[in-house]
Specification:
Elements: H1 2-23, E1 33-35, E2 38-40, E3 42-43, E4 50-59, E5 74-75, E6 83-85, E7 87-89, E8 96-101, H2 109-123, E9 131-132, E10 136-138, E11 140-141, E12 147-153, E13 161-162, E14 176-183
Parallel strand pairs: 4-14
Antiparallel strand pairs: 1-2, 3-6, 4-8, 5-6, 7-8, 9-10, 10-11, 12-13, 12-14
Length: about 200
């Protein structure tokens, strides 16, 4: 009897291992993204072990907001998802990145843009790229006479603080608001972001 129970337990363990491996394997056609701290697959399920949110606001030289597309990081779409990258965007929460990972690790702004790029090229058959470096943000490029200004608000009461250095390396933290501006003259006042709005309350 003990042998039968032991064999049954081994079979259950083997099944759980296989399920675990499959859930951390990118769905067909969705490439695994090489993030700053390792691979980020497009998993068949959303995770709840690590779950927090970061807002990203992108303004062009006219001060126009370029929202993050709903569904970015969800393959092929929100309506009929086959997989979710650990960093993704839901249409219900404009400009909010949902970080939903199976374990604690460091994620950077670059990680999200790599996922957004993978999503965008997947949806558009390899056409179009979403970049993040000192002269590019999404499809916007810093032109002659322009500069990129980056603000980080940690929601600690200090308000938006100018970020020096490559914004791609910004570590994503809960309720952080990252504002990226391409400006030709005087920097724009960073638009406010309301974590307590009707759509964001509870995030």
């Amino acid at each position: 009897m003990a042998i039968v129970v032991g064999v049954a337990m081994l079979l259950i363990f083997a099944v759980l291992v296989v399920i675990g491996i499959r859930s951390h394997t990118s769905a067909p056609g969705a490439p695994t993204v090489q993030g700053s701290s390792g691979a980020i697959p497009c998993d068949q399920l959303e995770h709840a072990q690590v779950h927090y949110h970061v807002a990203v606001q992108i303004l062009d030289s006219n001060g126009t907001l370029h929202p993050l597309p709903g569904g970015a990081g969800i393959i092929p779409n929100e309506t009929a998802p086959s997989c979710f990258y650990w960093l993704h965007v839901h249409s219900a929460n404009q400009d909010v990145i949902h970080i939903e990972a199976p374990a604690t690790r460091v994620f950077t702004l670059s990680d999200f843009f790599k996922i957004w790029d993978a999503y965008n090229t997947y949806e558009n058959n390899g056409v179009g790229h979403e970049l993040m470096d000192t002269t590019h943000v999404s499809t916007l490029t810093v032109g002659t006479g322009q500069q990129m200004i980056v603000y980080v608000d940690l929601s600690d009461g200090k308000g938006p603080q100018v970020y020096e250095g490559d914004p791609a390396g910004i570590t994503l933290k809960a309720h952080e608001v990252i504002t990226i501006e391409i400006v030709s003259g005087k920097p724009f006042t960073p638009p406010s972001f309301d974590w307590n709005s009707a759509t964001n309350k509870g995030l």
